[in-house]
């Protein structure tokens, strides 16, 4: 009963319409954080003291580096001409060598994000996601996330404030970035709930500490430097702070003191008095910081989790059988052996088919364990498809209740797919990718999509056109095979096609070495 109520409520949650390759990919990094199918970001900050580039007790943390990196990447923004902002220009050595970007935390963050980047998740999106995952997993509020940042092709003009600068200079820098003096106080107080100042990067501010719990000589901003909380404000107000930017020996570099007291302590006092005010202010300011992007970049809507999300949906043409496999994630649901999940599919002949109960795969969680999701699998062991009938869309039955995206169904395309007749030649290594194309579908272009990066590290897709076969080769009565010979055994290919002026891509990718010998 409980399950039914929950799921009925979830159906009402608004999300985007599946499929949307970009939103699907961004949602995956955003919400598949721990457990089954976890993307790996949250694991790097478990526990929040973790610092993957050093052992324990360095005094450093990945979480602090990730948040600092996002701010420094954004801080080049110039509101008047729309240049700079979150565009991953911080990855350029030229920016990292500037005094305003002292320390190796930026490079470390960019390296740690490598595995998250793909054609739909830019480097800049990954830096925004890193900050969000750090904040949310280490005690902070949920941050609204939009995707779609583009990655700069070259460094931006400098623009990060430095501790020794005057209050006027700080106010001007934050104004250029689009923040009022009050918001400046907020952003500094929110960012500095994590981390501290490291001796190596700022030897004039922090000396050698001779502290076995801070081997890398990091003097922290507050006593809870791996946790999001308002201790940065309460310790400042109570006079117990040990922040090197408030009670540092040289008053010139006590920039947080100047900033916090710049409005007579009004804002920082409101944070010290109310953890809720602090938290909600930080949630807003962090989201705005991450959404500060160069003019012309259009961000997506705020990404919310899909209540029911098909994942890894893949077709393979295997001689006379079309194989369909995939997974489905049920959001905000906990493991329940009595839950019965079934797949339904509609074919091109207008028939609907229903599977037996799907196999349970595992649970995942997100947002510091706040949300839980369960995963089920479907595959060719229980789904036998007639290629002529094909598949138009999927839907699910959860304890008998239909989940079909409010009548739309979860559309899938079976116009083209990898064929299991693809093969490899061992010596010299080469191979062939075969694509099965549905007869009667007007495919104006068919191509392989090779995932690679450009000369400044941005993910790109290289398209390799497949020439239509001179004389049709039948895969079976409903499909024809188009082939391409290839020589790179490591290259990973998706398949793309243009149909009716629309580009479609498979989400599955293949190397020819996966297949049998030709
Ligand atoms: C910001 O852009 C305006 C307009 O192009 C320019 O006049 C100003 O110098 C820029 N500010 C900085 C700090 O580069
Ligand atoms: C304090 O810091 C400023 C700015 O870095 C520097 O110019 C000055 O020499 C420092 N004063 C002392 C006493 O170290
Ligand atoms: C702000 O608070 C600090 C810490 O309690 C105190 O030292 C300082 O005098 C206050 N400044 C103003 C302008 O009230
Ligand atoms: C998650 O489910 C619980 C009931 O199990 C419900 O109270 C809560 O509102 C749901 N949260 C979201 C964000 O859907
Ligand atoms: C295939 O699907 C069935 C039914 O959902 C499931 O029990 C089985 O574990 C799945 N096999 C694989 C390899 O995923
Ligand atoms: C691939 O190579 C084989 C063997 O050389 C050749 O017979 C075939 O025509 C080639 N196919 C294509 C699509 O180029
Ligand atoms: C296929 O599509 C192209 C472009 O949309 C169009 O020009 C062509 O007439 C179509 N061919 C058929 C057979 O429908
Ligand atoms: C489809 O892909 C081609 C080649 O990459 C591109 O030029 C075209 O703009 C794309 N069309 C749409 C509608 O996205």
UniProtKB/TrEMBL annotation:
- This chain belongs to the protein called Peroxidase
What function does the entry list?
A: Destroys radicals which are normally produced within the cells and which are toxic to biological systems.
Q: Which InterPro entries match?
A: Ccp1-like (IPR044831), Haem_peroxidase (IPR002016), Haem_peroxidase_sf (IPR010255), Peroxidase_I (IPR002207)
The family this protein is said to belong to: Belongs to the peroxidase family. Cytochrome c peroxidase subfamily.
Q: Which GO terms describe its molecular function?
A: heme binding; metal ion binding; peroxidase activity
Q: What is the lineage of its organism?
A: Eukaryota, Fungi, Dikarya, Basidiomycota, Agaricomycotina
Answer whether the UniProt record assigns the keyword Nucleus to this protein: no
Locate the Plant heme peroxidase family profile domain: which residues?
A: 121-329
- Its EC number is 1.11.1.-
Choose any GO biological process term that the UniProt entry carries and state it. Answer: cellular response to oxidative stress
**Enzyme class name:** oxidoreductase
Would the keyword Cell membrane turn up in this protein's UniProt record?
no
Question: Which UniProt keyword terms apply here?
Answer: Heme, Iron, Metal-binding, Oxidoreductase, Peroxidase, Signal
From the UniProt annotation, give the residues forming the signal peptide: 1-15
Q: Name one Pfam family in it.
A: peroxidase
């Amino acid at each position: 009963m409980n399950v039914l109520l929950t799921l009925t409520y979830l159906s009402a949650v608004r999300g985007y319409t599946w499929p949307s390759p970009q939103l699907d990919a961004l949602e995956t990094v955003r919400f598949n954080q721990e457990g089954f199918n976890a993307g790996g970001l949250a694991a790097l900050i478990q526990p929040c003291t973790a610092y993957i580039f050093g052992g324990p007790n360095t005094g450093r943390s990945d979480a602090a580096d990730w948040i600092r990196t996002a701010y420094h990447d954004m801080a080049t923004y110039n509101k008047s001409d729309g240049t700079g902002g979150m565009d991953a220009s911080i990855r350029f050595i030229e920016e990292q060598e500037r005094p305003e970007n002292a320390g190796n935390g930026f490079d470390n963050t960019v390296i740690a994000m490598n595995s998250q980047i793909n054609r739909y998740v830019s480097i800049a999106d990954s830096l925004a996601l890193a900050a969000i995952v750090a904040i949310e997993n280490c005690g902070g509020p949920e941050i609204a996330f939009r995707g779609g940042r583009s990655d700069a092709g070259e460094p931006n003009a400098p623009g990060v404030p430095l501790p020794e600068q005057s209050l006027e200079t700080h106010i001007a820098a934050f104004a250029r970035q689009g923040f009022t003096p009050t918001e400046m106080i907020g952003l500094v107080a929110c960012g500095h709930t994590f981390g501290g100042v490291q001796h190596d990067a700022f030897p004039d501010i922090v000396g050698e500490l001779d502290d076995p719990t801070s081997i890398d000589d990091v003097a922290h901003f507050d006593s809870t430097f791996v946790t999001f909380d308002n201790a940065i404000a309460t310790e400042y107000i109570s006079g117990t702070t040990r922040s090197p930017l408030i009670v540092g020996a040289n008053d010139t570099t006590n920039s947080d003191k100047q900033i916090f007291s710049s409005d007579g302590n009004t804002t920082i006092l409101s944070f010290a008095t109310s953890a809720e005010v602090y938290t909600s202010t930080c949630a807003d300011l962090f989201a705005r910081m991450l959404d500060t992007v160069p003019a012309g970049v259009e961000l997506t809507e705020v990404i919310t989790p899909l209540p029911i999300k098909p994942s890894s949906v893949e077709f393979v043409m295997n001689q006379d059988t079309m194989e369909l496999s995939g997974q489905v994630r049920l959001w905000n649901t906990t493991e329940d052996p009595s839950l019965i999940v079934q797949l339904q599919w509609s074919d091109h002949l207008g028939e609907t088919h229903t599977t037996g109960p799907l196999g349970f795969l595992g649970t995942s969680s997100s947002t510091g364990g706040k949300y839980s999701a369960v995963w089920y699998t479907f595959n060719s062991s229980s789904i036998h498809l007639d290629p002529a009938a094909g598949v138009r869309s999927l839907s699910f039955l959860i304890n008998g209740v239909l989940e079909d995206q409010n009548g739309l169904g979860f559309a899938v395309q079976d116009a083209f797919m990898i064929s299991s007749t693809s093969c490899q030649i061992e010596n010299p290594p080469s191979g062939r990718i075969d694509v099965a194309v549905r007869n009667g579908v007007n495919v104006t272009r068919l191509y392989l999509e090779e995932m690679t990066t450009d000369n400044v590290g941005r993910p790109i897709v290289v398209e390799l056109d497949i020439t239509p076969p001179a004389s049709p080769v039948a895969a079976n009565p409903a499909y024809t095979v188009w082939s391409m010979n290839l020589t790179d055994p490591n290259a990973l290919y998706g398949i793309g096609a243009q149909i009716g002026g629309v580009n479609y891509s498979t989400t599955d990718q293949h190397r020819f070495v996966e297949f049998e010998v030709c």
